[in-house]
Design goal:
The chain contains twelve helices and five strands. It is an alpha/beta fold. The protein has a five-stranded mixed β-sheet, with helices on both faces.
Length: 254
């Protein structure tokens, strides 16, 4: 029996699209923070990363401790940085920096990523960001990971879409890394870094095939290794295997 047009349309919805539709329905609030404050915690640091799925440059993490009253950030539209435009992120970045008790940003470079793998490098960046806070937190709210850190911590899946503290860290890290990619673009003008921020877009892959990788590309990632004659492919990371489709979608590098 032939499928109706509506049924055919449903069949074409990708996992990435479904994930983005689901994330848009989540409500980013201070409910996780309030639950922790009820248990006696006061200095709660939101922790998140950006750049995990990129082929170029560092993975960046941020840790942010916000004041107890977060209503103004909620009203300003704070949520997962991937759900915001560049203008919205930069506006929120200024607001967060103005009101936060403290902020720390850390980078782990491509060479370290290649040496220890992207998962461990991400955890390392998050730990560095937490250690860099000028005020010691008494609890960490982390987006989907646990850290080798003595501080009490809560791993919250889709945390950047649910917790204002994690969303704030997401915005701070995203604005920082995007600015870095724009700064590096004139130094590597053949790759289009200012537009895709180092992610695995068709444009970026074409540039890699035409010009080969720079010293700042992640050679442990298969799309880079495939065009680098000096890299042994065995053991290289496939970006598509490591990350969900949604992590590599265009909205990640807007």
């Amino acid at each position: 029996m032939a499928l109706s047009p509506s049924t055919r349309g449903e069949k074409t919805v990708t996992r990435a699209t479904a994930k983005q539709q689901m994330l848009k329905k989540l409500v980013c609030s201070d409910a996780p923070e309030q639950a922790l404050r009820y248990r006696g915690f006061r200095l709660i640091a939101g922790v998140d990363e950006v750049g995990r799925g990129a082929l170029f440059g560092p993975v960046v993490a941020a840790a942010v401790i916000l004041p107890q009253r977060l209503g103004s950030l909620s009203r300003a539209g704070l949520k997962d940085s991937k759900q915001l435009t560049r203008e919205e992120r930069e506006r929120l970045n200024r607001r967060i920096r103005k009101m936060a008790l403290c902020i720390s940003v850390a980078e782990v470079d491509a060479e370290t990523i290649d040496r220890v793998n992207i998962y461990q490098a991400t955890r390392q960046a998050m730990c560095l960001a937490v250690h860099g806070l000028s005020i010691e937190p008494d609890h960490l709210l982390i987006d989907a990971m646990r850290l080798d850190h003595a501080c009490a911590q809560t791993r919250l899946f889709y945390g950047d879409a649910l917790s204002l503290s994690i969303a704030a860290a997401s915005v701070i890290a995203k604005v920082h890394r995007d600015a870095l990619m724009r700064e590096l673009d004139p130094l590597h003008p053949l790759y289009g870094l200012a537009s895709h921020k180092g992610y695995a877009t068709p444009e970026h892959r074409r540039a890699l095939r035409s010009h080969g990788p720079t010293p700042l590309h992640r050679r442990s990632f298969r799309p880079v290794a495939e065009v680098d004659p000096e890299t042994v492919l065995e053991g290289c990371t496939s970006v598509e295997m490591l990350f969900e489709e949604g992590d590599l979608e265009e909205n990640e590098w807007l």
